[in-house]
Amino acid sequence: MTPLLSARGLTMQYPGGVTPALDAVDLDIGAGESVAIMGASGSGKTTLLHCLAGILRPTAGLVSFASVQGPVRVESLDDGERSRLRREELGFVFQQGLLLDELTALENVAVARMLAGVPRGQAEAEAAQWLQHLGLAGLEQRRLGELSGGQAQRVAIARAQVTGARLIFADEPTGALDSATSVEVLDLLLAATQQGRTLVVVTHDADVARRCARTVVLRDGRVVSDTAAPAAAASAAEVSR
Ligand SMILES: Nc1ncnc2c1ncn2[C@@H]1O[C@H](COP(=O)(O)OP(=O)(O)OP(=O)(O)O)[C@@H](O)[C@H]1O
Questions:
Q1: Exposed (0-12), middle (13-18) or buried (19+): which is 169, by Cβ within 10 Å?
Q2: Inter-axis angle of helices 179-194 and 149-162, nearest 10
Q3: Which residue CA neighbors atom 12 of ligand 1 most closely?
Q4: Fewer CB within a 10 Å sphere, N or C end of the chain?
């Protein structure tokens, strides 16, 4: 079966870096998988996520994505096609940066649909449905700054899904949350994979990795293990090296 996302020889050398942040990474991710990316601080996790998502252009290697419009080479997309992918097929749940504090929860989600050309009324109706589905009914008109960290992450998850994204990238989605809220947020992300979406999550948290179907561990920019769950013990040992 053709993977949804496939990287070959993915290499990222930052200017001034002594060694590459990513060193010839090969990775295939199938539709519906939940993949945790683990590794010690500085091992290249975020760099890998950003290269896979087309946020960063790698210095070498390729990333293929099985878009609904046919295969695309993520590493060489032009800005227009990259924007289309981000609007329509990719979702992002990052700790910060994507949601706007001055907008309400509803507006933050609806704007993702409006960017795809959906009229405001319909976009807001869809956004309200997702917020309700994610347990935020009644908080639609709160500004982001008036929400807790866990509530804000739910808004991010709603935003990542309202577009119909097939592939969700999450970078430490539970990093700033207490353990009970982390479990709830991860439940919501994993529920998305039950509906056929694919989840790639960078995490330091062995509990998060344990609940993903697969764990990829990086060390010095290379994949040193790639195992189906349960892999938390091996991953935790690697991370604490
Ligand atoms: N913009 C940049 N310019 C130069 N070097 C960078 C840049 N971003 C990351 N690096 C370096 O690349 C390596 C990998 O960084 P990356 O952020 O991918 O690691 P990480 O595993 O996500 O780390 P952490 O767990 O601490 O977030 C590190 O050595 C880092 O210092």
A1: buried
A2: 10
A3: 21
A4: N
> Rg of the chain over CA atoms, in angstroms?
17
Quick: pLDDT tens for 66-82.
999 999 999 999 999 99
Domain locations along the chain:
5-227
Mention the CATH class of domain 5-227. Answer: alpha beta
Pocket of ligand 1 (CB under 6 A): 14, 17, 21, 39, 41-47
Token pair in block for residue 166: 């097939």
Task: State the distance from the centre of ligand 1 to the C-alpha of 46, rounded, in angstroms.
Answer: 7
Q: What pLDDT is attached to residue 7?
A: 98
- Cα 44 to middle of ligand 1, angstroms: 6
Q: Which atom of ligand 1 is nearest to the CA of 50?
A: 18
Pocket test for ligand 1, best of 18, 37, 47, 59 (most atoms within 8 A of CB): 47
Give the ipTM: 0.98
Q: How far is the CA of 129 from the centre of ligand 1 (A)?
A: 37
**Ligand 1 atom nearest to CA at 43:** 21
Round to whole Å and give the CA distance between 126 and 113. Answer: 8
